[in-house]
Task: structure prediction
Amino acid sequence: MANIQYVTKEGLDKLRAELKHLESVERQRITEQIADARDKGDLSENAEYDAAKEAQGLLESRISKLQDQVANARIIDKSQLDSTKVSILSTVKIKNLANNQELTYQLVPETEADLKNNKIAVSTPISKGLLGKKVGDKAEIKLPNGNILNFEILDLKLEE
Result:
């Protein structure tokens, strides 16, 4: 059963680039490591060979996962999103009502989450609590640890 995954065009391009690099560069590098280790003699006691074979297995697993992600990726049509409500690809400025701290996040697909750049996955509790809200709305968000956070939506824009 296909596991459809919604991504941005940029996110899909990044997945494809990583897949191409793994298939063309890393696969060749590991093949060479295995050949070098094999040339060193008895394979039953060859740690280099075992390590290279293990690395090959991990690489092939990653390649397979990326191939599946690329095959099942669907690009999000930004023109179909409502820019007046928080949705995937929205950049939302929120205020924590407990401490008046203001935060800005962009809600993105799982594969594109990057907290350092304030991009949070749409599946996180905070994102789920904000989805569908408008500027001025308040959101009560229950975290996995049981704590409840209250936010107010200050600003909202849909990235072009």
About this structure: The helical segments are 9-38, 47-71, 125-130.
